[in-house]
Amino acid sequence: MRATRGLVLLTGLFVACAPSTADQVGGGMPPEIAAQLAAFGHEFDGAIAQQTAAIYATAPRVYEPGEIVVTKDVAYGAHVRQHLDIHTRANRPAEPVPAIVAFHGGGLIAGNRAALTNVADYFASLGYVGVNGGYRLAPEAKWPDGARDVGAAVTWLHEHVAEYGGDPERIFVAGISTGALHAATYVFRPELLAPGTARAAGAILVSGPYTFDFATAGRGELAYFGEDRARWPEMVLPGHITRTDIPVLMTTAEWDNARYTTAFATVFDELVNEHGVVPRYYQSMGHNHSSQLLSLGTVDQSVSGVIVDFIERTGGR
To answer: Whole-model pTM above 0.85?
Structure first.
């Protein structure tokens, strides 16, 4: 499960190579899944997200569901969406292990933590503590509430994860799309967080919309960032990075559209050229926007090996 075949490691960055037949047989993306995702191309919307989820729903798992114990609806805050589902292996390791809390996407106004059940299951099957995190949605939530919810969840876990076998000093945050935006804001802009917010050991940021085209902003951006467009430049991540000491793995998908790849490139450039920090980067070849995390725990281990390697190298066991 930790294989990173099909990758070249250069100065701390993962650069994707074309998968070989051996990769496909040994845990890479199965050809039939690759063909279905390629058929969508760079287009992505709610219908394609549902079709992608259906593809992986029937993919064989690399663990048995009976291996996993789930504690549901654990509150880390007062709001109904400020809840966690905590997944552990039935036979927990004797020593404290890393914990990974994942935050879903949904365009700032939709989505729920159940969408990433496979992610928490997968990490639990490895012996980690896998956690699905909810957060408040716009328009009820306003910038930077998403990042503050990520911080509140990490702070709660720092105080309680040992009860589930986790190591409070090895809590990783992961997010996809909007979840990656909130996690990145938590990681890179600590001045926006509540006093006493706990620090994560690392972050996995999957295709986040870290900035956006102000002229074509959609319903989600308006609901979360507000109607005053003059303030939007202060709210996006580029140009406002103030913390760079948390290790980060950033990914984009081969079939991501420019909304995500351009935002990633802008943040990556700022980290390298203005802060002298080179985060690990992986281009998820063959994947579309949502398939990257949906693949975790299935026979498609093209992304999971990279994430596990990052956790092991950063936090170890």
So the answer is: yes
Q: Any bridge partners for residue 75, and if so which?
A: 83
Q: How many CB atoms lie within 10 A of CB 229?
A: 13
pLDDT tens-digit series, residues 43-74: 999 999 999 999 999 999 999 989 999 999 99
Query: Which structure tokens are listed for 222?
Result: 């308006």
* Chain CA centroid to CA 198, Å: 18
Q: How many CB atoms lie within 10 A of CB 180?
A: 28
- Which of 210, 272, 279, 289 is closest to 249 using CA atoms? 279
Instruction: Please name each of the domains of the chain with its CATH number.
Output: 7-314 (3.40.50.1820)
